[in-house]
Design brief:
alpha/beta, Nucleotidyltransferase, domain 5, 7-stranded mixed β-sheet, Rossmann fold, 8-stranded mixed β-sheet, 422 residues, 2 domains
């Protein structure tokens, strides 16, 4: 319709009809924001900032709940705060897009939204994968999955998606290279929708659009954050995916090693939202080649990570356990020695930034001197995503790797001359 006809139509509407029109998502949505046809398990929306991913996920959940096609729905955000502030209470979240006549009852203390017809959506944090053990759902909305720290959160969500005759999940995210996300994209039961920021320009503040385009348009970061491209390599990262793929060999190819160390990068706390404790085993052969043997990183209590490190030390018949002591000081070595009093422990202390410490190790990879005895996907995700930029998540696995290879680079004489922590 031409503008004049549109104005006449809108002014002729009653308040009731205008409200119904305002909340008719089928009318307002772009084609890419509507569920795809066909038999699919996961609808993966990979799109740039401001595309309308949150609104799309919220409207999909709303339609399922109001039509009673789903009775139990999981809302999984990167953190508990994200699930609450973005998926439920946000400007494009569930409460904002639901019309007044069918507004659900929100109980923040129970992390729950309940519709008048009994349909219920419950919030979960991807930072606590065990939250998703046990509950069952017939639908799920997973937000910003490329930022999730633990693949186990996705696995547990999929295992709980088992109610009804056709349980489905919509996953909305700005793309970032993750090994398990790549596998999800190629799964035959996944439908992928791609989109960019410009497609939603009519609903974005002109100043935001002008600023973000002026700064990032045409750059690699812009391709990822604006155009929504799934880039294999991140601008500024010290390792590329192709390089990491080239260093993988079979475990049977590992030669006799002259030195082996177990490196530990302990987390400050051990709660549900804590960082993981990095535990990596690496060795050096007689020809000067470096071998990454195991990545045993996990979120563990001090006693459990100490037991894990000591067990690796004995299984691999390592020379020492190298531990970073910036956070825990003498307590780090003392914790290890509660498990094995005779354990040789070498303390290392970070005096430079993470990127500066990692650069010599990255150079070893570029020189073809490092091999991975197998595929360490979680470790390689951190390596391929590490730029050293402020605000990046703590790369616990990478930190442990850097400590291990740095110790091996120092040579046996330098290592033996270091004082053990008592």
């Amino acid at each position: 319709m031409d503008p004049a006809t549109t104005r006449r139509l809108l002014t002729s509407l009653s308040d009731r009809d205008a409200a119904r029109l305002l909340h008719d998502w089928m009318l307002w949505a772009r084609d890419k924001q509507l569920p795809p046809a066909g038999d699919w398990r996961v609808w993966l929306i990979l799109a740039g900032r401001g595309f309308g991913k949150t609104r799309t996920g919220a409207e999909w959940v709303r339609a399922l709940a109001e039509s009673q096609r789903a009775g139990r729905i999981a809302l999984v955000g990167e953190t508990a705060g994200d699930a609450r502030d973005v998926m439920i209470e946000g400007e494009s979240g569930l409460l904002a897009c639901t019309p007044p006549w069918s507004r659900p009852h929100y109980e923040p203390s129970k992390r729950r939204v309940t519709w008048p017809n009994g349909a219920m959506a419950t919030c979960f944090s991807a930072d606590d994968p065990d939250q998703l053990r046990g509950p069952q759902f017939d639908a799920a909305w997973a937000d910003e999955i490329a930022k999730w720290r633990y693949e186990a959160a996705w696995d547990n969500l999929m295992l709980g998606l088992r109610l009804g005759i056709d349980p489905r999940c919509v996953a909305t995210t700005t793309p970032k290279p993750r090994a398990w996300l790549s596998r999800l994209m190629t799964d035959p039961r996944t439908v992928v929708t791609r989109g960019g920021t410009r497609e939603n320009a009519a609903n974005l503040a002109p100043a935001f659009l002008e600023q973000i385009l002026a700064r990032y348009d045409g750059t690699q970061l812009g391709r990822q954050e604006i155009e929504g491209e799934y880039l294999v390599d991140i601008p500024g990262a010290l390792w590329t995916r192709s390089l990491l793929a080239s260093v993988r060999v079979s475990c049977r190819a590992v030669p006799e090693l002259a030195r082996i160390v177990v490196a530990v990068d302990p987390a400050v706390t051990s709660g549900a939202a804590s960082d993981e404790t990095g535990v990596v085993v690496a060795g050096l052969d007689d020809a000067g080649g470096f071998w990454v043997l195991e990545d045993l990183t996990a979120r563990l209590s001090p006693d459990l990570w100490a037991r894990r490190a000591v067990d690796a030390y004995h299984r691999h018949r390592a020379d020492a356990v190298v531990c970073e002591v910036n956070q825990g000081g003498d307590l780090v070595a003392a914790t290890l020695r509660t498990v094995d009093p005779a354990l040789p422990v070498r303390a290392v202390r970070a005096t430079r930034g993470k990127r500066l410490r990692a650069e010599p190790v990255a150079a070893l990879y570029e020189q073809g001197r490092v091999r991975h005895a197998g595929a360490f996907e979680a470790l390689e995700d951190q390596m391929a995503g590490f730029t050293g930029a402020a605000g990046d998540a703590s790369p616990d696995r990478l930190d442990a790797l850097v400590w291990a290879l740095t110790d091996l680079m120092s040579g046996p004489a330098a290592a033996e001359s270091r004082e053990f922590l008592i």
